[in-house]
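An example makes the point: we print one protein in full, the chain in one-letter code, the fold tokenised, without further comment:
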Amino acid sequence: MYGHAVHKFRFTSILLIAYLLLAFIQVPWAQADSADPPAEVFHLIAEGAITPAMAEYLSRGIERAESESAAALVFQLDTPGGSVDVMNDMVKEIRASRVPVIVYVAPEGAMAASAGAVITLAGHAAAMAPGTSIGAASPVGAEGEDLGETMEAKTKNILKATVRSLTEGRGAEAVQLAEEMIENAEAVSASEARAAGLVDFIADDVDDLLEKLDGFTVTTSTGEVTLQTSAATVTELSPSFIEQLLAILTNPNIVFLLLTIGVQAILIEISSPGGWVAGFIGVVCLALAAYGLGVLPVNWFGVIFLVIAFVLFIFDINAPTHGALTAAGVGSLIAGALVLFNSPSAPGFLRVSVPLVIGVSVATGLIFFTILMFALRAQRSPIRTGRESLIGRVGIVRRDLDPIGLVQVGGERWTAEPVEPGIEIPSGTHVEIVMVDGLRIKVRRLEQPPQGEDV
């Protein structure tokens, strides 16, 4: 009995030792298998005006980065500015992100102007490439015009409070510079912004930026995070098709083309009702142009010129002046297009291409001039329908005009009489119709039968 217990104890001890050895052997392998994979950093590239499409792009990138527990998100920015409302939405998205968002003004020559400057300051970390600029954030109206005194004061004070809250951890000099950007449209270079503490790094490219970010501590909505980015893998996140389309629709050249094509298509539909293709194209083009007009800083003085241009084209078709109004319309179209997005208070935005404006305006003028020529030709051509169309046509006498008889004109036979009283015209004679009197025509004799005339 005792021996059995000892044997059982020995067996249990051996089994326990075996388990412990196995555990010690497995520890290094378990540690190797549980090693963390390389950190992932998402990279977004945003260029152009700050629009709802750009805001959607940023929001989608943050959601993706959060869902995949990325180490950080680099939002590369190059913008002349845009809507304050859209800017506020983007600032909220960045500050609410659980993943650190680094706003990077790049590449060389890029800018974070106007609303773009505030978005840059909203990043959990901010960086700029050499040769870039930031600032000029004084608010302007939706059409690029100066605000009224009261509204300007309100808007500036709100924006200054915003930038103070975004830069309060960067030092007094950074706060002062940020306020100067709002109050006096101050703009600075990358080196000046770095010297003032407005941005955290100057980096040549994304790889250089990640090297400098490694070990840097930022504060997100979930608390402090120390970035581990030196060995991170970079995942490029491109804009979706819809985001790219909406960005294209904010290009002034595209908006101008859509306006021109849309108005011409509508005019074609009005002048030749019954179809639907021209009207459909016109409505679609104008709807797409309306989106761009709602986003870009539009100078409505230019819109007035565009309307005047097309009114002149229509007048020249309906009351032909041999092209004088069409020429004036071309001039008005060129002037309107050139000032359409030319707002002096928003100098960073793209302008409509001058060669494009001249080319499209001349082509539009030629189209309307061609229509005008057809209209003039139609007015000068003889009437070819109704009784009046008979005047001047040639017929042949089928029953003697003595004085009443029958004349065949084309496939019709008409009761006829000579226009000169007392004259008889025998059958087989060619005559010309000179008058229509009710259901009777009056004719005169032709001495020389017409050659090739279908009677």
Notes: The chain is about 50% helix and 15% strand. The two ends are 141 Å apart (CA to CA).
